[in-house]
């Protein structure tokens, strides 16, 4: 009996030990957030898969900057968080997971240059080996802005195995050099199950919030980037072909035909408004002016066709020049192959081609 009790005690002890033993070290190696002096910022730091862009005022001394990072639990970073470095050129940080099995490199850039006024879409990279991302550079060939799209969300559906099958893709034969091809695509079986049977091709200035794309798609659009110009109009070239079958909520609507949209919104940011989204993009009181193609302009065109849309000032507002200098005004320029694509209505196959876009200011 004593031996039995001893064995039973040993078993119970081993079981308890297995329950309270420490968890395995974390295998993640990510930067979760980036913090800098808010007085120098024109916009909150932009965190992407392997890069961080910090948009700062032109008066910022880039040679003496010390960003502070929040990492996944247990991870370490080199150079250490808070180290003073010279950011006149991008710096590379290496994050190592708690279990020391994984590393991830981040390119961290401080950006003084603001976006220009001409967009030819010649700069594009393949993100995660899956889809195209268009970006803008300054005179030193430094990346100063990534164009956003819904490609990251579309990648979750598994509906395409190559970049050409994504809603937003490069166009080899644009008006001049490369252009952009926006195509409304089926999201396959997974998308249909989730009530999101299609994805419009889109391209916009801002950021796409992947976390909100499933729960609240209209909130996934973070529209706007800081600018130091006051836009007066948008011009460029397009081609458009509508898809054959218009669907709304997955149901065929025989009396409806798809069409495209281009619009731009210029607005003031403040402590309560960092960006616009799909719920307030035309209605927020901070909006200064809006430019949008008219119904008459939304034609189908097989040849490159010029367009021009002026900005209409809302409520006779005036510009605060100091706020403009400080980066407190933002602009979003948006293109989409299906005008109602944000509610998953449109026609699969609708295709909008764009190139040589210019802001007058």
List descriptors:
single chain; 361 residues; mainly beta; Immunoglobulin-like; Jelly Rolls; 2 domains; 6-stranded antiparallel β-sheet; 29 strands; PCMD; Put_CMD_sf
Word description of this protein:
- The chain folds into 2 domains: 26-112, Immunoglobulin-like (Sandwich); 113-360, BT2081, beta-jelly-roll domain (Jelly Rolls), CATH 2.60.120.890.
- Strand 21 and strand 22 (251-252) form a beta hairpin.
- The termini are far apart.
- The protein has 5 helices and 29 strands.
- The strands form 8 sheets. Strands 8, 12, 13, 20, 25 and 29 form a 6-stranded antiparallel sheet that branches.
- Residues 6-18 have low confidence and may be disordered.
- The protein is 11% helix and 38% strand.
- By secondary structure, the protein is mainly beta.
- It holds the Pfam family PCMD.
* CATH superfamily descriptor of the largest domain: BT2081, beta-jelly-roll domain
The total count of strands amounts to 29
> Can you summarize the main beta sheet?
6 strands, antiparallel
Per DSSP, what share of the residues sits in E-state strands of 2 or more residues? 35-45%
Pfam family, one: PCMD
Protein name: Putative carbohydrate metabolism domain-containing protein
InterPro entries: PCMD (IPR025112), Put_CMD_sf (IPR038653)
Domain Putative carbohydrate metabolism: 120-359
How are the SSEs placed, and which strands pair?
Blueprint: H1 2-20, E1 31-35, E2 46-47, E3 51-55, E4 68-71, E5 76-78, E6 91-96, E7 103-111, E8 118-119, E9 124-127, E10 131-137, E11 143-146, H2 151-155, E12 168-171, E13 179-183, E14 185-186, H3 188-193, E15 198-199, E16 202-204, E17 206-208, H4 212-215, E18 221-223, E19 225-226, E20 233-241, E21 246-248, E22 251-252, E23 261-268, E24 287-292, E25 301-310, E26 312-313, H5 321-325, E27 329-336, E28 345-347, E29 351-360
Parallel strand pairs: 3-7
Antiparallel strand pairs: 1-4, 2-3, 5-6, 6-7, 8-29, 9-10, 10-11, 12-13, 13-29, 14-15, 16-27, 17-18, 19-27, 20-25, 20-29, 21-22, 21-28, 23-24, 23-27, 24-26
